[in-house]
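Re: [ENG-882] Designed sequences occasionally contain unexpected residues at chain ends

Forwarding the minimal case from QA. Structure tokens:
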């Protein structure tokens, strides 16, 4: 937990309240959290529901784009030996 708090503090997402062991979220941290939340709620969750719940015969544009992206990522990683 100390490591995580330190990383958040160094990135300016939280700040320590003086003379206590408590932290508060900075304006930058709140904006960052809202950005991540809105991206998940408005983009990722609806997109993933379309991709994973789409019937096999219906091929909408989003499914084609996600499949194309997946193929490109797979192609980029083929042949590279990375340490685990």
């Amino acid at each position: 937990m100390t490591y995580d708090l330190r990383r958040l503090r160094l990135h300016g997402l939280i700040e320590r309240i003086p003379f206590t062991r408590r932290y508060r979220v900075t304006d930058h941290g709140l904006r960052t959290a809202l950005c991540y939340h809105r991206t998940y709620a408005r983009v990722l969750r609806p997109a993933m529901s379309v991709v994973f719940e789409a019937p096999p015969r219906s091929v909408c544009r989003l499914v084609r784009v996600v499949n194309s992206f997946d193929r490109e990522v797979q192609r980029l990683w083929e042949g590279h030996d990375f340490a685990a």
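QA comment: On inspection the terminal residues look reasonable. The CA atoms of residues 33 and 81 lie 35 Å apart. Proposing we downgrade this to a documentation issue.
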